[in-house]
Design goal:
This protein has helices at about 15-25, 55-70, 85-95, and strands at about 30-35, 45, 80, 100-105, 110-115, 120-125. A hairpin with an 8-residue loop joins strand 1 (about 30-35) and strand 2. Strands 3-6-5-4 form a 4-stranded mixed sheet. A two-stranded antiparallel ribbon has the order 1-2. By secondary structure, the chain is α+β, with helices and mostly antiparallel strands. It has a single domain (about 15-125), classed as Roll (2,3-Dihydroxybiphenyl 1,2-Dioxygenase, domain 1), CATH 3.10.180.10. It is globular.
Length: about 130
């Protein structure tokens, strides 16, 4: 069995500059590399440790109900652990994100906020109960 060393999410966007400003500048993801060239632009950003969360439809519906009050996410949703989910959401909203749902305290004790990036990607910003 091959051991995976990294999970990378590749996001193709219509407005590269807006996406870069949102994810790097507003969200604060560290820029690791710039592989842009004549054929196009690509920037690699670090999001810390990566995990792959696999949910079936009933569980996805339950999580959406807890975090947003209804089924709202698509096939892919990014979950990002941040120091203060409400403050992070405020920064992202100022940078063009839309509020999907206000902050909630989850049954597992995290403080979650759901926003939608200008490119349409839904993000769950969560602060763990420590």
């Amino acid at each position: 069995m091959t051991e995976v060393a990294e999970l990378r999410v590749a996001l193709t966007v219509a407005d590269f500059d807006d996406a870069l400003a949102f994810y790097r500048d507003a969200l604060g993801l560290e820029q690791l590399a710039d592989w842009s060239g004549e054929a196009g632009r690509v920037i690699l950003l670090s999001a810390g440790r990566a995990t792959l969360e696999i949910l079936d439809q009933p569980q996805a519906e339950k999580v959406d109900a807890i975090e947003a009050g209804r089924r709202v996410s698509g096939v892919v949703r990014l979950g990002l652990e941040v120091e203060d989910s409400e403050r992070a959401a405020e920064r992202l909203i100022a940078a063009g994100a839309d509020v999907v749902a206000p902050p909630v305290l989850t049954p597992w004790g995290d403080r979650n906020v759901r926003v939608q990036a200008p490119d349409g990607m839904q993000l769950t910003l969560f602060t763990t109960a420590r």
